[in-house]
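Feature request, filed as a ticket because there's no other form

It would be nice if the structure record came with a short human-readable summary line next to the C-alpha cells. Right now we just get the raw output. Example of a typical job, pasted below so the devs can see what we mean:
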Amino acid sequence: MSGRLELVPSDSGVLVRVAARPGAARSAIQGVLGGALKVAVAAPPEKGKANKELTRFLARRLGVRRAQVSLVSGEASRSKTIRIDGLCEAEVRARLADPG
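Raw output as currently delivered:
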C-alpha cells in the first residue's frame, strides 16, 4: 500500500476509514487515499449491496468473522468508517499489507 493508513483504536478493536468504489469487476484493495483505505467493491451501490460486499470482503481479507466487521458511518456515501472488532492496529495494518 502506498501512503499511510490512518487507524483509530476503539473499545473493541480498530476504526478504519474507507474510500469505497462500488461497481468494480472484483473487490480489491487499491491503496491508501488521504489516510483512508481505497477499496474497489464488486457490487452496485443500491439497497446496501455494496456495503454488504465491502464488509464481507474486508472480513475475508483480515481473516476474521463477518460479524467482527461493521459499518459505523457512511451508509449512503463512498466515504465510510468501518469497525474491526478483535484486532489491534498492528494486526490490521499487517493483514491489509499482506497481498494474500
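Something like this underneath would help us a lot:
Strands lie at 7-9, 13-22, 28-33, 36-41, 69-73, 79-85.
The domain at 7-97 is CATH 3.30.1200.10 (Conserved Hypothetical Protein Mth637; Chain: A;).
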